[in-house]
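Bit of a strange request maybe. I'm writing a small parser for structure token strings and I need a real example to test against, not something I typed by hand. Could someone generate the tokens for this chain?
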Amino acid sequence: MKILCLFWSNPSMYPFLREKISYFKKKNIKTTFISREGNSVHIGHRQDNKDNYHGNFLKKNCKSFIIPGSRNFLIDKVYFFYFILFSSLNCFINKPDKIFIYHRTTLLIIYLIKFFSKGEIVYQNFDYNPEIKNNSLFARFVNWSEVFLSKHINLFIFSHPKRGQIFSKDSKVDKSKIIYVFNSLKIQSAVKKNKIKKDLIWTGSIGPGHSLINIIKSFIYLNKEIKLRIFGKIEDYSYFNKIEKLIKELNLEKRIKIKNFVPEHKIKKALEESYAAIALYEPIITSHKYMAGASAKINAYIANSLPIIVSNNNDFLNFSKKFKASIPVNIRNPKSIAYGIKQITNNKKKYTQLQLNAYKAHINEFNFEKQFTKINDRLKILK
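Reply from user aminoacidic:
Good idea to test on real output. This should exercise your parser:
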């Protein structure tokens, strides 16, 4: 079995890929990974040598080729053209049995893949957002191509059933060709109890859409012992400056710390040490409306047995009711967010039960081993 993975984006942003590549190596499956170099195009995101996805992880676990990227539009498109040619050549020479495509821009290569290879094509979508984010012709073309090129794909993988249903309606793809796989991590060790410091954690991209302003405002209603660490890459510097200014205005500098440029292994350690976690999503794009199970950070929180403060939309209300590991709050109301946090930090019995429920959810549902079974059942990668 030979597998080719193509990703014109930064794969270090998707832990599920890390788990899959590690698993393929463990099972002695020949895997080639061709991707864009992430550090040159993702402002504010950096990983050190110990956990550099491109420099170390891929090289240790598969045959990898990293194509440069650029913030300059024209230069970046030249690199993308090189990525297309190099990937096509790899298909021609190696004749992969399965070809995994990630990110809709990568789909633009599909005609050449089909010409040079008879391998089964799998498209794994992590964030389906049919909305046009800007007015560039290229962005419009890529959004259109995701739907138009779907007829050439053998299997689709979505991280949330509702996202897949919307895509099926938009593209007219038969629902039988779509499977749903959560962005889960491999099974972790048992729940870590007896946490004393009430340090909360938030991870992700620092920018609009995550209610960070209201999260910060909620801390004026909380005891001073409760603190928050924000780990993330800066996507919007004007927004970042705004929340930094707000923290100073509210005299919360000692309680809320923003940590940018943080390597993956340090975030992992912070998750293990944290008391609880926050994951709020404003419904500004399609994917934000359907994040339960799809969100990489939700899966990371669950894997670390962390009770979670979540949005009170229908998706998370159902999630909270089913797994009983989270507290839904009104994302537009700082007092509601504070009340949700108090339910976790002021009630030890409830906190312990939320911890145990999070671990049960991880063991029973949100783990890579179970999620990969769905992929293998369809693709027969492992016999």
